[in-house]
Each structure stands twice: as structure tokens, then as C-alpha cells.
């Protein structure tokens, strides 16, 4: 902050020094000279006065940085790849590697957008809900069978802790009702238990266990305050313990009073309760709360920014996408929102990437079996969050397409027609054939919440043509959309009133994917003006930390904006077709349970 203050002070001082000179200089040439100098000074001041918000998003394969102006428009972005190790169910990354990738991405984005360090007034981090282990010096501690100290992150989609999750769920702890009835192996408690049971030396060395986005904010500021988003969604923290004591406008670190010590003791992790929960978080804050004194000198130098630049409490990447898109409504709807505070509760955000998160909020606490939550203030402060999801969506589409025998041929044909992306070419094939043949794929996480469930394909033939690949591609997209319909119907049957979807992420750029979702769910889908909603959501955290807005909701209203609106087909035949196919989709899981039971009995 001192550097920025000096920049302003220098500009102001040169302006005041010219005032007495203007009284002494009488010649026209001198007047012109002084006018030019004043104009230059004014121009320099205007350049410095530009307000830019920086968002950083760490996904599964890369770290990205995006710069946004005060209207929420993207000025420039850049990305840098990150390393990942995969060995069966164990998937690991390096916090050191990720931080270096972030620094490279931030510097590249600032250079590409021609943004100076002093123009960046606030910074926010979003990341996957991966688990980071560091010692008392902040150095990485291995969470890998390999003992490689670089590998100190258990990645969000790692499934090594399935057995630990089952044991935790068998205890039926009261905290589990806020996780849809049970923890997933992708949450942190099962992973922590796995490390304690399997890597005793590492367990004894760890001084801090942190969600990745919280670790990034800690690495940037030296403040290890945790976010209500990460702790509530992934650590069984009961955010509503603060409900009567805290409001978003009361921006401060709050003593972590939402840990259930009995839960941690019952599952065998009683040592995490010690030291007032020092290893897992002694203080929490609303997303966007300013941390510490902003960027430390060391972090600022590494990022190419100014020391003291405000940094907001972080968000999980999908939730940052929710913040970046949830108020992306038309101007008329935005005005209606002012009169109807509950309008935002009629929307569900789909953050569509490798996996898809389905997020809706409510003023009331709604328990939805098989769907995570309700989480108090985990995304929008003072609202309850319901979070559904599908573990493999973008990953599933890629897998189905790339493993088909016709894929190389179609890829070459797409390239010869100057179509850069194979999916775009497949969309044109689907349109060409008007495919309405039978084909159905099962792919769900919510509301079934069965980690043992497998994908299913119904309707396979020996056909290897491009038409068959297009049919399989369409069936995959429809299967994902039927899963979304199942989530929406399930949530609405238990108290939600969802009638509008908002979509962001890589798959939201696929027109066929979005239209099929609109047709199948029966809701209009709003696409945001800015494609990079997760980066925008992260940048909003920085804007709030910099006190440019009174709170997260005000910042969302100012920086979110609607783009295209996709409506469901009005053709009754399309509705009838999807209604029939949805019934088949729902029956596939029941068949799978029956088959599993038959084989379990046979193998006993």
C-alpha cells in the first residue's frame, strides 16, 4: 500500500508545483509547454487511476490469471500448466509447482493486458478443493506413497479414501446431515484419516492442513484464516454457528466455533482438535474478507505486484464460478431483483468443466438427501447453499469421443474443414443427421451419492461409422443433461423453486450441450457475457477485499452481466422424446443395483 500511496503522492505533488510557475510564465510558448505538461500529468494520473481486479484460478491442469475492469469486462488472461501425478486411485500435485505457475500466469496476463502493478487494486484466489500439507516452515510434506516431498497435495478427484469415507458415514454423526447424509471420498476428512493410517511419518510432520485456495491466500499474505466456503463444504465445518453473531458487513476474522470436536474424535482424528484446531483452522471469514495486510513483500515480488495489495478470503473454483455468474441476468430482471430479494433463489448455476457443480441458494435451510449441504454462507454470504454435482462430464465426453475408432478420421476431417475443435464438427454431424435414435448413458453423483456406481451405455451396436460416434456423443451429452434434470427435480421436490439455469465453464461454450440441457430440463439457460466466470468470481473477491463494494452481493450485481439466453424447444415431440428417454435413464441405475446384488450373492 505504501508504494501505491507514493505513486499518488508523486503525481499530486508535481501538479501543485506547476501552479506558481503558471503565474510567473507569460510567454505563449511557455503557456503551451505548461498546458502540455499539465495534460501529460493528467493523462498519467488517469492511467494510474484505472481500477483493475485480478482473479486467479487453479484448476486440475493449469493455473490461470484474469484481469477485469470495474464493469466486469475481461482485459486479459493467461495460463500456465501444472504438474500432476496419477497412480491408480492416488492423484497428487505440488504446491510449489502451482505457486510458480500462478506467478507466471499473473505476469503474463498483466503484460498481455498492458496492466501496471499499481492498477491492480485487489486480488482473489479460487482453486480445486484439493488438500495441501505443509510443515511449520510452510514447506511441503509428502502425501504420497513415493515419499516425494514435492507431492504434498491430494487432488480433489483422488479416491484413495473410499474405505475411510464408508467408515466415517457408518457413524451417522449429526454433522453428516449437512453433507447430504454422508461424506464423499473427495472431501477432506476421509483423506486426512487415510494419511494418518497410511503415512504416519508425514502425519506427524504436518503443521497445517489446508484447502488449496486457502493455502494460496496464506502463501500470498501470511494469514491462515480459512474461508467459510472451503471449511463448510469440504471439512464438515458448521458455518451456521456464526449465524446469530456475524453479518457480511461485519468483515472480520471470526474465531472458528463451528468445528464439531466429537465428530473428529469419533472418527479417530482427535489430534486435529488440539491447539484450538490449529492444524485445520482457528479462524474463518466470509469470502472476500481482506486477509492480513495484503500481499507480503515476498509474494508481491514473485507475482510482479505491489506489496499490500488487498487479498480476499478465497473460494473453491466452482463456487467462484457461481459468484461470477449468478447475477448475470437481463436489465429488467436485475430491476425486479431489487423488489424481490428471493429472485436469486430461483436460479441454479452449472459450472461445467471436467466435472459439473450444480449450485442453488436459499434463505431457508433445506435438507436434500444425496445432495451436499445445506451450507451456510459457503458461496453467497447469509444464504444457504445446496450443491449437487456430476463427477465426470467434460471428462466423460472426451473419453467417449477419443476412444471411438472413428475419432482419428473425424479429427482429420474437422481439421481439413478448418474446424479447430472436434466437438464442433460432431455438433455439425448431429445436426446433419438429426439424430433421434435410441442411446442412453448413465453418469451421476447427485442425488444418488453412490461412489460404487458405474457408467452405463445402452444401445450399442457394431457400427464404427462417424454417424455412430455422433450418436454416442449426443447420447453422452443427453445422459449428462438427464442427470441435471434429476438434480433439479429432486431439489424442487424438497423446497427449492429453481426455474432458471445459468451455465459457465468450458462445456458452456458448446452450443449443442447447452441446447440439450435447456430442452431436457425445461428451463431457460443464461450464459454470462464473460466466458471466464471462475476468474471473474475470484476477481470479485479482490474487489470486495479492496472495499470497492459494500459486500459480495453488491460486487456481483455490478460485475456480472448476461449474454445469450437459450430457451427450451417448444416442439411437443421433443418434450415427449426426452420424457420417455429420461424414464429409461432413471431405470438404468435401478438395473445396476440389481445386477450388483446378483453378482455379490454369486461371489459370496
TrEMBL record:
GO terms for molecular function: D-ribulokinase activity. Residues 53-324 form the Carbohydrate kinase FGGY N-terminal domain. The keyword Iron does not apply. GO terms for biological process: pentose metabolic process. Keywords: Kinase, Transferase. GO terms for cellular component: cytoplasm. Pfam families: FGGY_C, FGGY_N. It comes from Ananas comosus. Residues 1-21 are annotated as: Disordered. This is FGGY carbohydrate kinase domain-containing protein. Belongs to the FGGY kinase family. The keyword DNA damage does not apply. Residues 349-546 form the Carbohydrate kinase FGGY C-terminal domain.
Amino acid at each position: 500500500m505504501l508504494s501505491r500511496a507514493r505513486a499518488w503522492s508523486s503525481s499530486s505533488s508535481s501538479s501543485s508545483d506547476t501552479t506558481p510557475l503558471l503565474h510567473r510564465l507569460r510567454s505563449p510558448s511557455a503557456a503551451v509547454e505548461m498546458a502540455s505538461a499539465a495534460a501529460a500529468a493528467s493523462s498519467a494520473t488517469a492511467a494510474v487511476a484505472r481500477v483493475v481486479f485480478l482473479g486467479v484460478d487453479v484448476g486440475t491442469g493449469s493455473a490461470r490469471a484474469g484481469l477485469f475492469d470495474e464493469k466486469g469486462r475481461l482485459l486479459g488472461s493467461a495460463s500456465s500448466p501444472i504438474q500432476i501425478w496419477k497412480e491408480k486411485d492416488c492423484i497428487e500435485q505440488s504446491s510449489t509447482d502451482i505457486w510458480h505457475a500462478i506467478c507466471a500466469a499473473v505476469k503474463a496476463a498483466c503484460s498481455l493486458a498492458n496492466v501496471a502493478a499499481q492498477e491492480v487494486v485487489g486480488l482473489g484466489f479460487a482453486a480445486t478443493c484439493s488438500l495441501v500439507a505443509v510443515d511449520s516452515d510452510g514447506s511441503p510434506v509428502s502425501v504420497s506413497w513415493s515419499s516425494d516431498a514435492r507431492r504434498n497435495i491430494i487432488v480433489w478427484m483422488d479416491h484413495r479414501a473410499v474405505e475411510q469415507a464408508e467408515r466415517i458415514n457408518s457413524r451417522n454423526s449429526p454433522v453428516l446431515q449437512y453433507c447430504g447424509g454422508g461424506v464423499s471420498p473427495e472431501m477432506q476428512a476421509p483423506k486426512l484419516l487415510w494419511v494418518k493410517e497410511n503415512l504416519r511419518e508425514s502425519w506427524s510432520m504436518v503443521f497445517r492442513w489446508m484447502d488449496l485456495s486457502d493455502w494460496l491466500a496464506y502463501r500470498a499474505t501470511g494469514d491462515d484464516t480459512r474461508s467459510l466456503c472451503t471449511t463448510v463444504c469440504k471439512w464438515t465445518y458448521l458455518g451456521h454457528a456464526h449465524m446469530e453473531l456475524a453479518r457480511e458487513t461485519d468483515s472480520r476474522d471470526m474465531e472458528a466455533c463451528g468445528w464439531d470436536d466429537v465428530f473428529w474424535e469419533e472418527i479417530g482424528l482427535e489430534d486435529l482438535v488440539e491447539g484450538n484446531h490449529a492444524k485445520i483452522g482457528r479462524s474463518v471469514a466470509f469470502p472476500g474478507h481482506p486477509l492480513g495486510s495484503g500481499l507480503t513483500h515476498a509474494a508481491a515480488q514473485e507475482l510482479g505486484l505491489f506489496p499490500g495489495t488487498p487479498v480476499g478470503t478465497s473460494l473453491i473454483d466452482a463456487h467462484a464460478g457461481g459468484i461470477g455468474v449468478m447475477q448475470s441476468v437481463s436489465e429488467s430482471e436485475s430491476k425486479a431483483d431489487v423488489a424481490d430479494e428471493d429472485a436469486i433463489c430461483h436460479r441454479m448455476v452449472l459450472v461445467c468443466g471436467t466435472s459439473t457443480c450444480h449450485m442453488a441458494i436459499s434463505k431457508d435451510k433445506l435438507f436434500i438427501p444425496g445432495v451436499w449441504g445445506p451450507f451456510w454462507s459457503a458461496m453467497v454470504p447469509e444464504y444457504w447453499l445446496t450443491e449437487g454435482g456430476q463427477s465426470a462430464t467434460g471428462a466423460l465426453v472426451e473419453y467417449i469421443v477419443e476412444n471411438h475408432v472413428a475419432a482419428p478420421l473425424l479429427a482429420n476431417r474437422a481439421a481439413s474443414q478448418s474446424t479447430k475443435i472436434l466437438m464442433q464438427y460432431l455438433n455439425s454431424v448431429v445436426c446433419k443427421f438429426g439424430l433421434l435414435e435410441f442411446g442412453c448413458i448413465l453418469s451421476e453423483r447427485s442425488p444418488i451419492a453412490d461412489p460404487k456406481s458405474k457408467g452405463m451405455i445402452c444401445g450399442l451396436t457394431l457400427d464404427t461409422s462417424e454417424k455412430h460416434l455422433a450418436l454416442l456423443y449426443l447420447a453422452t451429452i443427453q445422459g449428462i443433461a438427464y442427470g441435471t434434470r434429476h438434480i433439479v427435480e429432486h431439489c424442487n421436490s424438497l423446497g427449492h423453486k429453481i426455474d432458471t439455469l445459468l451455465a459457465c465453464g468450458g462445456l458452456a461454450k458448446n452450443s449443442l450441450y447447452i441446447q440439450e440441457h435447456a430442452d431436457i430440463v425445461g428451463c431457460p439457460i443464461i450464459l454470462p457475457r464473460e466466458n471466464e466466470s471462475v476468474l471473474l468470481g475470484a476477481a470479485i473477491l479482490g474487489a470486495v477485499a479492496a472495499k470497492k463494494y459494500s459486500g459480495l452481493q453488491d460486487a456481483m450485481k455490478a460485475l456480472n452481466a448476461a449474454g445469450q439466453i437459450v430457451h427450451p424447444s417448444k416442439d411437443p415431440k421433443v418434450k415427449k422424446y426426452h420424457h420417455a428417454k429420461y424414464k429409461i435413464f432413471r431405470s438404468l441405475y435401478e438395473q445396476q443395483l440389481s445386477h450388483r446384488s446378483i453378482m455379490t450373492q454369486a461371489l459370496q
